[in-house]
Amino acid sequence: DSGVTQTPKHLITATGQRVTLRCSPRSGDLSVYWYQQSLDQGLQFLIQYYNGEERAKGNILERFSAQQFPDLHSELNLSSLELGDSALYFCASSVVGQGSQFFGPGTRLTVL
Amino acid sequence: GQQLNQSPQSMFIQEGEDVSMNCTSSSIFNTWLWYKQDPGEGPVLLIALYKAGELTSNGRLTAQFGITRKDSFLNISASIPSDVGIYFCAGLSNTGNQFYFGTGTSLTVIP
Fold first, then answer.
1. Contact across the interface for A105 and B42, Cβ inside 8 Å
2. Do B85 and B36 form a contact (C-beta atoms < 8 A)?
3. pLDDT tens per residue across span A26-43
4. Residue A42: which of B30, B98, B104 has the nearest Cβ?
5. Structure confidence by residue, pLDDT tens digits, B30-89
6. Vertex A73, ends A67 and A76: CA angle to 5°?
7. Distance (Å) of CA B78 to CA A44, B14, B16, B20
8. What's the CA gap between B98 and A56, in Å, rounded?
9. Phi and psi torsions of A103, nearest 5°
């Protein structure tokens, strides 16, 4: 158990819908990262937050957005969902912005 | 974006054999991480490397941060069936805050 929690574990929705994925970092970790992993693909970095502020942006679509709240939990919002958005979405956290990352169990999103 | 070349892409080995995989980058990294991922699960951190030349062990696993800071390798000795999974390297560029991940090495251990 890495100490990073993600909810929900599974999510099934329809095209065009909007969903919110939630992540709670390890106790004491200030930085949160979001990744997308499609079938048989590597991890694609989406976005990073550090102590509530956006720190780095990767290949995140405009339909996706994220935020980190004062209690340091983070949410990833995915809107106007398409079939190709079906993937595993992972959250990771680290103490500082450049430290070792610890991953949550992921949320499996299926868009039908 | 930054590319990490990880090789081999897949390995099929007999139980008891040693395994070696590596990652290379076109630019310098400050940190190298090695992860193992089981199907449908989150990656689990195996080893973290923070200094060029650093050699670190974790049980049967040994990893090294290349002297050029552009590569890293992971060795697994005396493989066992539970070593099966996908191994990812990740590197932190010295120019930014983003970690880049390799494409993974799929390891199959034949009993």
1. yes
2. yes
3. 999 999 999 999 876 788
4. B104
5. 899 999 999 888 999 999 999 999 999 999 999 999 999 999 999 999 999 999 999 999
6. 40
7. 32, 9, 4, 11
8. 7
9. -95, 145
